[in-house]
Specification:
The protein is α/β, with parallel strands linked by helices and 368 residues long. The protein has 13 helices and eleven strands. Helix 1 packs parallel to helix 3, helix 9 packs across helix 10 and helix 11 crosses helix 12. Mean pLDDT is 89; it is low at 139-155. The active site is at residues 173, 249.
Amino acid sequence: MRVAIEADGGSRGNPGPAGYGAVVRAHPTGEILLERLGSLGTTTNNVAEYSGLIEGLKAARELNATEVDVRMDSKLVIEQMSGRWQIKHPGLRPLAATAAELVTHFDKVTFDWIPRERNKAADALANRAMDEATGKIPRSAPEVSVAEEAEAPPASWAPPSLDNATRIILVRHGETALTKQGRYSGRGDVPLSDEGQAQAMAAGGRVAGISRDVTAVLSSPLGRCTRTAELIAAEVGGIPVTVVPDLIECDFGDWEGLTFAEVQQRWPNEMREWLASAAVAPPGGESFRAVSKRTRGVMATIKDEYAGGVVVVVSHVSPIKLILKDALAASDAFLHRMFLDAAGVSTMDIWPDGNIAVRSVNETSHLR
């Protein structure tokens, strides 16, 4: 999904009582999807402008946008985020770094300067936030969308309706020889073991227990997944398996086929950096952030092409963890704290409005 962000910020006094505003619009209609505003206490215009950009990017991420067009009347922010101007002020560097980190979560982000008269919506929100900062009007909740406030249903603990929901059943492939030995298994095409075949059939029974009205079975192109997918498909009516290249496992590069202990002994610094940041790739391999871009594209396709259906996704540890991480709005730390068994099953529902309900994670009762 492509969106446009219009962002602004300002202060009464520079520095003075400050606030930001951000508007996220649908492309190409221009329909307002989300609005954000907030007061910042006493600070400068530039800090407020960067704050508007950051909140706009966060809002776009909430909408699961993949492409973002940023439009601001701040020449400084646009030029610095485009890399054409240096960030000399030390107080702006952390804000620019935060914005840059958010940018990595999208497939494409552009930055364009627009005149103030074309940024009236964000400017109005920023001025409202500044009025709140000076006490002229009552303070509003900074994280509430104006559009959501008018249209969103009241919060409830009641089970969500399945009307219009797309059910996604995530299945990790069955066991291989490398799985059993605890070795990194990325792009190597390792076949299922005999135990892995049995696990895949058991996973097929569990999927059939969740739903026999499966719309599609999608699989990574690697054999351990396509075979698992075929055995599952046979349990739910023999529907064909669709290979999706972007569901392939993370490329572990030089670490392929090694254990964690072996990697830690030979690449201690690289391992430490990899564990600390999803943007870091193993030597010769692929970062989790790059894998995340792939999986987000797959999820967007499922939402568009299989809306209202039941889709089985057969993949690997990294892609499934990243899909669950996004669904649960978790931090990157989730990737190293979540364990997924071979042939484990996780279930989630997504709705056209972007709402998500995770029903189960790593079910393994079918394997006992």
